[in-house]
Amino acid sequence: MEMRHLHALLKQRHSLGQLEPKGGKLAFVTVPRENLRGLLTELRDVHGFTHLVLLTAVDWMEDGLFQLTYMLNNRGRDMTLGIRVMLDRQEAQGDSIHDLWPTAATYQRELKEMFGIDFPGSPRIDEEFILEGWTDLPPYRRDFDSLAYSQQTYAERPGRVTHDPREYMKSKLYPDGV
Amino acid sequence: MFNFKPDRTQYPAADADGKLEIDLETGKYLKLWQGPNHPGITGNMSVELTVCGDEVVEGKTHVGYLHRGFEKLMERRTFIQVFPIVCRVCVPEPDFNEYCYAAAVEDLAGIEVPEYATWMRTLILEMGRFNSYMMFLGGIGGALGLGITGQWMTYVRDLMLDRFEELTGARIYHMFILPGGVRGHLPEGFEARMEEVLSTAERYLDDIDKVMFSNSVFKTRTKGVGVIDPKLFEPYGVTGPNARAGGVAKDLRKDSPYLVYDQLDFEVATATDSDIFARATVRRGDVQTSIDLIRQILRKMPKDGPAMARIPNVLHWKIPRGETYIKGECSRGEYGYYLVTDGTGYPRRINVRGPSYTHAMALLEHLIPGTNISDVAALMVSLHTYPPEIER
């Protein structure tokens, strides 16, 4: 079954958005949060998308949204589907799928720490994952300024010369001007 | 054959959620930290073991010792400035990061890579895979007390690093595969010098077969130990040699061919027992496949041609809004880059999918209970995990 046929089959049942194909083997589609679980379960159990490749987030701060991306793969048919769920940035909470793929718990734990997106019921969700004693904004949010943080937190090493990367590259790569 | 049978009567009771009721005050259980500084740990992570006698009843993995914030850092860099960062995500096999990032940028920017560059990329990736397996074969021997294998494999890896240095100018972080192609051509006489390295490697690998794979201590300690039930492969995201050792021939070079793998003749190594020994034999088979592939690539690749496509002025390079996922088969399984662009000169989001993320966390925690303390190191090494790709 091609990606387009699969989309046509599932579109109404799970309120899928437009299919965005990227070649024949990869496509992206958006689904409402309330339909996510049903869609993932059907894709896994009926359509052979048994491999959860990754789960991550994108911060669309200017739109007030977090995008969760669930990447699923059907190995037999060599098809990968990226499923997007948009969350309100102010109420950043997703639905745990650790019961569908146990390994999802690790991704969800990281998303809680790095983006502040909660997944109630996910194992060890509140335990520190990578950061230790972190009290600032979740650092992968766009409004966390890593440069300001490092300037406030760490002292400048004496004797170090810092170039502005853009100007330095310009002088090295395009000495005659661009 | 020796089979370790854990005494389940020693196990702590579990509550309704499956959480073990461990009271350290009873003196029956002990916490034992394996890592972060421990010869039996593959890099910068630790495993918090709860033991009862010499049997492990629970294991929790801890990472964060090597977090460098690469994914955040890359959002503040132009597309070309990201290029020297990506290889540093994974020390032992850095080239996959370069390939996946370059291919993702090319996909979203609509750049077609010259044929010569696709052959060179395949060559580089197989050389990197070979090196990664050298570290594995040395490491698995080391985890079980065979110190000599680590020395031999380090020597052979060093010979391949000489070829890397000759080809790319660098030994570890090559920064050779960049968006648009590769940085150069094969030096004069490279094929002959590579053949010397491969022949030497084969001689040492014959010795490894005798000293390690035919060694009764090695066999006793690895056969029937650390078995992964193939039913766990999908729920736990098991890919690559760890799956192939359990009879599932997962290999993206075959399942979803990229670069020039569809023009190369090779079979992927598999086994059936899914234990530590099977995982080691699959990797031993994969090394030979890589050696054969390197010879084949050097024989079949075009002798000349452009190595780079034209790319835009890198200081003003903006990529239209979009997202893509590029994957490849590294020595440990599926490696992938998820790239999101927003029409500006900077990536909106880059997420690195390394196989260790699933193998060294959820899977390892699932496999540890019931093992003997002395087997934890071999179990972990047998999964071939590299912590840097977990925390990036």
TrEMBL record, chain A:
Residue ranges constituting the NADH:ubiquinone oxidoreductase 30kDa subunit domain according to the UniProt record: 29-146
Record's protein name: NADH dehydrogenase subunit C
Family the UniProt entry places it in: Belongs to the complex I 30 kDa subunit family.
PANTHER family: NADH DEHYDROGENASE [UBIQUINONE] IRON-SULFUR PROTEIN 3, MITOCHONDRIAL, NADH DEHYDROGENASE UBIQUINONE IRON-SULFUR PROTEIN 3
Source organism phylogeny: Bacteria, Pseudomonadati, Pseudomonadota, Alphaproteobacteria, Rhodobacterales
InterPro entries: NADH_quin_OxRdtase_su_C/D-like, NADH_UbQ_OxRdtase_30kDa_su
Native species: Tropicimonas isoalkanivorans
Listed GO MF terms: NADH dehydrogenase (ubiquinone) activity
Annotated TM spans: none
Domain of life, source organism: Bacteria
From TrEMBL, chain B:
Annotated NADH-quinone oxidoreductase subunit D domain residues: 152-312, 317-392
Statement: the UniProt record of this protein carries the keyword Ligase: no
Family indicated by similarity: Belongs to the complex I 49 kDa subunit family.
Cited InterPro entries: NADH_Q_OxRdtase_suD, NADH_UbQ_OxRdtase_49kDa_CS, NDH1_su_D/H, NiFe-Hase_large
Pfam family, one: Complex1_49kDa
Record key words, sorted: Membrane, NAD, Quinone, Translocase, Transmembrane, Transmembrane helix, Transport, Ubiquinone
Function noted in UniProt: NDH-1 shuttles electrons from NADH, via FMN and iron-sulfur (Fe-S) centers, to quinones in the respiratory chain. The immediate electron acceptor for the enzyme in this species is believed to be ubiquinone. Couples the redox reaction to proton translocation (for every two electrons transferred, four hydrogen ions are translocated across the cytoplasmic membrane), and thus conserves the redox energy in a proton gradient.
Subcellular location: Cell membrane
Entry protein name: NADH-quinone oxidoreductase subunit D
A GO MF term: oxidoreductase activity, acting on NAD(P)H
Domain of life: Bacteria
Ranges that cross the membrane: 130-153
GO cellular component, one term: plasma membrane
Membrane topology: Peripheral membrane protein
Species annotation: Tropicimonas isoalkanivorans
Key word ATP-binding present: no
